[in-house]
Every structure is written in structure tokens, then in C-alpha cells.
Write a structure and sequence with these properties.
With about 110 residues, this protein is of the alpha+beta class. The protein is built from three helices and six strands, in the order βαβαββββα. The chain has one domain: Pnp Oxidase, Chain A (Roll), CATH 2.30.110.10. The strands form two sheets. Strands 1-6-5-2 form a four-stranded antiparallel sheet, covered by helices on one side.
């Protein structure tokens, strides 16, 4: 499940395509998280210059991510000012088990 505000570019991409992936970053990838969190995909190709593959569903998977979940959309629910997109996981893998996953901390992103 992911929660996305309707004004975000990703919201329409998921709604129209019926797929999404969650790339889990490693604890050392805060700057990469900022790259994806602070610029709109409407104006910037966030994957430009990054090594990535396309999953079986068609979602981009970052090769340097700690892990990923590749999902097919099965339902949506309004949740306040966001939409919850619920997916069935089609594939998932820990790509770099030697690392630790990034845990969100507000101080790292603001």
C-alpha cells in the first residue's frame, strides 16, 4: 500500500497504469530519497543517470536500492487528502542484504 496526494504526478501514473513499485532505499541513501521526494516528475526525469531496470509489471526498479516491492493495483481508497493504492505484490527482492534499510526521520528530509 502506498499513500499519494492526488496533486502528485505519481498519483495519476499509478491510477492510469494499474502498477507501482516501492524501492526501499538503504540507510546511506538519504540524498537519493530527496531526489525523488523534492522534485516533480512532471518537470524532471528522476531516473536520468541512475542504473535501473524495468520490472515484470513495467515499474522502474533502482539497482542500488536495498530492496523493492513490485505490485499490481487491486484497489483504491480515499483517505483524507490522499488516496491509498493497495497492490498485490507480483515480485519482491532484497537486492543488497549487506546494507540496512532507510528508516524515515523528519530531520533527514527537512
Amino acid at each position: 500500500m502506498v499513500s499519494i496526494a492526488p496533486a502528485r504526478y505519481t498519483h495519476d501514473l499509478i491510477k492510469e497504469s494499474g502498477i507501482f513499485a516501492v524501492n526501499v532505499l538503504s540507510h546511506e541513501q538519504i540524498d537519493l530519497g530527496k531526489r525523488f521526494g523534492f522534485a516533480s516528475g512532471r518537470r524532471v526525469d528522476k531516473f536520468a543517470g541512475l542504473d535501473h531496470t524495468i520490472s515484470t509489471t513495467g515499474s522502474p526498479i533502482l539497482s542500488q536500492a536495498y530492496a523493492y516491492f513490485d505490485a499490481k493495483l487491486v484497489d483504491t481508497f480515499p483517505a483524507g487528502d490522499h488516496t491509498l493504492f493497495v497492490g498485490e505484490v507480483a515480485a519482491a527482492k532484497v537486492l543488497h542484504p549487506e546494507n540496512r534499510p532507510l528508516v524515515f526521520s523528519k530531520k533527514d528530509f527537512f
